[in-house]
Amino acid sequence: MSWTRRAWLRSISVSALAVASRDLAAHLGTGPVDPLVAAPDVWVLDVNGQRRRLPELLRGKATAVQTMFTGCSSICPLQGAMFAAVQEGLASNGGRRTKRLLSLSIDPLGDTPKSMQQWLRQMNAGPSWAGVIPVDDARDLRSVLAGRPPDANLDRHSTQVYFFNAAAQLCWRSPSLPEPGDVVSVLDHLANT
């Protein structure tokens, strides 16, 4: 009986530590971006293999950006499911034309337009959800999104969502794995300002 109680207490302690660590990390680099940061002027490939400038892709709509890679089997499917729920929330509250979701690969060497297209299909992405792959190294791009220098710890996969206004300016960083309703709310706010 004491072993079961000890195992139970240990699992609660580990769970509490994980939640506390997640909550502490979630508050670093979150919230409004001041001053606003222009989208990095980098080339990306869309699912059709077309080269596009990221700022041109972001301009004109409030956009929520997540970083991911198609070969990920741990956190990326959860992020995809979260964006799928956001997509449903956007469809139910109307005004979808002024809002967009963008999955941005952090693996330009491993991901291809075809693998991105397949990943989006698995996530049931609709017309307001696109995916792109940086043409070059993604470290500088990730640095701008995270608001940290390129030599900072960018090896870990970020689960934040980065919000751009219609002028292609980064204006908000979410906590780790935000609630879909929170993403919808921020997009609604940005689309109406």
Automatic annotation (TrEMBL):
The keyword DNA-binding belongs to this UniProt entry's keyword annotation: no
CDD domains in the cross-refs: SCO
Keywords of this entry: Signal
Domain of life (superkingdom): Bacteria
Family matches, as InterPro entries: SCO1/SenC, Thioredoxin-like_sf
Signal peptide positions on this chain: 1-25
Family from the record: Belongs to the SCO1/2 family.
Protein name: SCO family protein
The organism of origin for this protein: Cupriavidus pampae
